Amino acid sequence: MRLTFILVFLLVITNITSQVPEWQNPEIFAVNKEKHRATFLPYPDQTLAIQDNYNSSPYFQSLNGIWKFKWTAKPADAPADFYKENYNISDWADMPVPGNWEFNGFGIPIYTNITYPFPVNPPFVDVNDNPVGSYRYEFDIPRSWDGRKVFIHFEGGTTAMYVWVNGQEAGYTENAKSPAEFDITPYIRQGKNTLACQVYKYGDGSYLEDQDMWRLGGINRNVYLYTTAQTRISDFFAHPDLDANYKNGVFSLEVELKNYTNENKNQSLEISILDKSGKKVFNKFQKIDILANASKEGQFRGTVSNPLKWTAETPNLYTLLITLKDEKNNIVEVTSHKIGFRKIEINDGQVFVNGKKVYFKGVNMHEYNYKTGQVADRETMMRNLQLMKELNINAVRTSHYPQPPLWYKLCDEYGMYLVDEANQESHGLGYGPENVSNRPEWLATHMDRIKSVVERDKNHASVIFWSLGNESGNGKAFFDMYDWAKQRDISRPVQYEQAHQKDRNTDVFCPMYPSWESMKRDAAKDLGKPYVMCEYAHAMGNSMGNFQDYWDLMRSSKNMQGGFIWEWHNHGYPAKDDQGRSFWAYGGDLGGYNLVNDGNFCMDGVITPDQQYMPHTHIVKKVYQNILFEKKDLYNGVITVINDYKFTDLTDDNYYYEWVLLKNGKIDAEGKFEVLVPADSRKDIKLNIPQVKAEAGVEYYLQVFAYNKKETPFLKAGFEVAREEFAFDSNNYFVNKTNSGSLDITKEQDKIVVTVGAIRYEFATNDSSRSLTGFENNGKRVMNELPRLNFWRAPTDNDFGANDQINLRLWEVAGDNIRYHFSGSEEKDGNITIKYECTLSAVDAIVNLTYTLNKDGSLTIDSHYKALSDNLPEMMRFGMIMTLAKDFNDFSWYGRGPHENYVDRNAETFIGIWNSKVEDQAFPYYRPQETGNKTDVRWLALKNSQGKGILIEGSQPLSVSATNNRPEDLDPGRTKKQQHWSDVLPRKEVVLCVDLFQRGLAGLDSWGSRPLDKYKFKNNEYAYGFTIRCLP
């Protein structure tokens, strides 16, 4: 009886299990898939193999194009028998492959960071909200492929996909960002064939693909067929290493051959390595006997004398040529792969490339194309590489999955260090024991994801680290993944952020967004392992403050070697609102407002969605530059040139240099210079600058620039690659100026009127709501709104992340309903001073305002802030706001420029006299926020087309902005709204802010970290002043 019960129970369990589809069973993630291998293609001869152009191979057929397509909202509605050849698809739509459904009219794109777009219940997903795409495509098999093996290759396997050929099921795959390959030989026929695919947007694999990205459906990478003979090269692993002296190449290779026949085969392999000119630098031959229906590995070893080395600076590549021949010495097939001789080592807690400690000036990058969703084509990749080279970026973390194969070829060719990351993130499940990485039924699929990336990309010189994945806790699976990767590839370090500094399964400490205090502690000690931040400098909105501070600290540390900015792209898509206004869509847009979304958190990149510079792009270029300059003896023109390249000498053949000496913002002298600096060294150079003497009211700045001398694949000759600026210690710009003229002063019962020629001022003396009440020139108002105190800026994304739109909100109202107490006036030396004590609204503080009417007609305003409590929060800004007519839009300033800059992000902007239009000052941030500021401003001028306007001169450096919007126009209030720049209408006026300071932007993260202490303003007293003059 008991045995009968057990048998019945087992039958019931088996029946239940059999009813669970593959896409909800974590133990089934591949059916009939070929095992993971390197990416390569067979060719019929060595010439074609060396060229390695897939389209030129007679053994290749692209299936990219327009496929027939049927979208359904849930699996139950998907067509059941659509894979049958006689199924009527005449009413189906067209879908490009590669292509994402949501960008071709099907479904809603969803952006979410951590939260899964379905109820969490692993391995199950919501069967009533899981879109399914059914595809059909017809292809022809040429007669020349008769008797050969035929495989279909998907460069990205999609989250969950079934494949049929001619009505027969060929297989099933999971893993959206790694290849899936199926042997379809048994199912094909000569001539026309029918391919059917059914793709599920979500499945159990989605629990391991919880990356911070748009959740899109579809086959978004290349699909193709290829054919091989009945014996073939099935895989190979090349090891182009260097000897202990980093001079000679130490080469080894394992080649796996496959025999599909029922007979033993006597074959031979020829291995050649060709240099750039086609000359063979290595050649070996080996006979190999392969048993029937079996595989056999051939191994090769040897040396290459003093090869050109591969680094991201010097991407020297060789062509590995593998030729398979039959027993009659006829070519069966040939394949090739670019390889680079280089050695990656960790010694003494530091990463070395070819014996040199390298700084990783990196960025994280998702697969993204603003036109198509997530279809990254060659044009997109090349533009990314161009921008990265311009910005001195030398490393990319493929967050958080392997990129398309073409990316790796391009990085090999043009030079880029890659941290190649497995398609693995289960962030939404938490980091504790509940994470599926601790469950045995999920172990195999975790392992499959590290195997797929390692096996696919193992021959790429650009790949220098493997990464186990991202933000998934550190369950047992990750220790097994680490152990496998270390066993499979002994040449590369393996990293995993969640191992932190306590677990064994990482070779590199790779924290994300460490606190500033923890970084300072770690920088001061020997950590025993390299420290390379896998994510830092979260570039959301108006951000990337303290980026220079990051690198100043890292360069003081033994173990710190850089990091990867989060992230490269702002992931917005072009859209139009109901009024036809264009904007960049983010989470919650494009029909997703009522769906789970994380708003504009996807807008956190270094470049714009359409691959252009934005304001904080420039700080990346400056801080990452590879030629550095330090002052040594400025007065004698001596500076130090530091070559931060590790493998590239600075010579008169690759770079040229210029210097400029500015006197009060204007060029006083300029010249060129030459310098030869070996790689990874420094050298002093004396510039032929004129003698600089201390003078009252005068300041000097020395600016030096380095330029590309020759055109490179991405940089034109003359492209600026580095810059630096030095102030002279004797600078004494801010001094009192003498003036002449005569004031006409009239004191009445409730006001004071002062006139100087055509200029007239009026001040209230008996009105608690006002101070300066009139300012005219030739009977016309100089300003629409006179200067008033202002303590608020439109909160940035980082401000919102720290909740400071609430914590500091009292500073917004501090400038409203101020009570002015007239303190008296004093006439002295032909000038008159009018004083007020201002009591701030809602803030326990006062500001003493002093207006000085100078006898030349100018007005000096001095503001002295004094806190009456020690418990006031940090100040957002301290200054004055005023407005002018819109036609005063010609904006000149002497300060830092030309683009916007802030107290913690201005190292890339130089002192100078700049000119622009007011309407061009605000950057259209994707969620409106503070923009347009300039720091270290000595003076500014706003003029109309007739040259009339105002000049404002600081009594000390100012922080200013001149835009067409007030702070409240860009401020959504206490909570973010679904707002875009298109929602902001420019005012028909110039809004001028003249401040002593504005708090820093911050740049550690966007969910709590504030500016570094030195960029905060928490003192109990601040004072500053400026003078307004009418022009002309």
Automatic annotation (TrEMBL):
<feature type="domain" description="Beta galactosidase small chain/">
    <location>
        <begin position="753"/>
        <end position="1029"/>
    </location>
</feature>
<feature type="region of interest" description="Disordered">
    <location>
        <begin position="958"/>
        <end position="979"/>
    </location>
</feature>
<dbReference type="InterPro" id="IPR006102">
    <property type="entry name" value="Ig-like_GH2"/>
</dbReference>
<dbReference type="InterPro" id="IPR023230">
    <property type="entry name" value="Glyco_hydro_2_CS"/>
</dbReference>
<dbReference type="InterPro" id="IPR023232">
    <property type="entry name" value="Glyco_hydro_2_AS"/>
</dbReference>
<dbReference type="InterPro" id="IPR011013">
    <property type="entry name" value="Gal_mutarotase_sf_dom"/>
</dbReference>
<dbReference type="InterPro" id="IPR004199">
    <property type="entry name" value="B-gal_small/dom_5"/>
</dbReference>
<protein>
    <recommendedName>
        <fullName>Beta-galactosidase</fullName>
        <ecNumber>3.2.1.23</ecNumber>
    </recommendedName>
</protein>
<dbReference type="Pfam" id="PF02929">
    <property type="entry name" value="Bgal_small_N"/>
</dbReference>
<dbReference type="InterPro" id="IPR008979">
    <property type="entry name" value="Galactose-bd-like_sf"/>
</dbReference>
<dbReference type="InterPro" id="IPR032312">
    <property type="entry name" value="LacZ_4"/>
</dbReference>
<dbReference type="Pfam" id="PF02837">
    <property type="entry name" value="Glyco_hydro_2_N"/>
</dbReference>
<dbReference type="InterPro" id="IPR014718">
    <property type="entry name" value="GH-type_carb-bd"/>
</dbReference>
<dbReference type="GO" id="GO:0004565">
    <property type="term" value="F:beta-galactosidase activity"/>
</dbReference>
<dbReference type="Pfam" id="PF02836">
    <property type="entry name" value="Glyco_hydro_2_C"/>
</dbReference>
<dbReference type="InterPro" id="IPR050347">
    <property type="entry name" value="Bact_Beta-galactosidase"/>
</dbReference>
<dbReference type="InterPro" id="IPR006103">
    <property type="entry name" value="Glyco_hydro_2_cat"/>
</dbReference>
<dbReference type="Pfam" id="PF00703">
    <property type="entry name" value="Glyco_hydro_2"/>
</dbReference>
<keyword id="KW-0378">Hydrolase</keyword>
<keyword id="KW-0326">Glycosidase</keyword>
<dbReference type="GO" id="GO:0030246">
    <property type="term" value="F:carbohydrate binding"/>
</dbReference>
<dbReference type="GO" id="GO:0005990">
    <property type="term" value="P:lactose catabolic process"/>
</dbReference>
<dbReference type="GO" id="GO:0009341">
    <property type="term" value="C:beta-galactosidase complex"/>
</dbReference>
<comment type="similarity">
    <text>Belongs to the glycosyl hydrolase 2 family.</text>
</comment>
<keyword id="KW-0106">Calcium</keyword>
<dbReference type="Pfam" id="PF16353">
    <property type="entry name" value="LacZ_4"/>
</dbReference>
<dbReference type="InterPro" id="IPR006104">
    <property type="entry name" value="Glyco_hydro_2_N"/>
</dbReference>
<dbReference type="InterPro" id="IPR017853">
    <property type="entry name" value="GH"/>
</dbReference>
<dbReference type="InterPro" id="IPR006101">
    <property type="entry name" value="Glyco_hydro_2"/>
</dbReference>
<comment type="subunit">
    <text>Monomer.</text>
</comment>
<dbReference type="InterPro" id="IPR036156">
    <property type="entry name" value="Beta-gal/glucu_dom_sf"/>
</dbReference>
<dbReference type="InterPro" id="IPR013783">
    <property type="entry name" value="Ig-like_fold"/>
</dbReference>
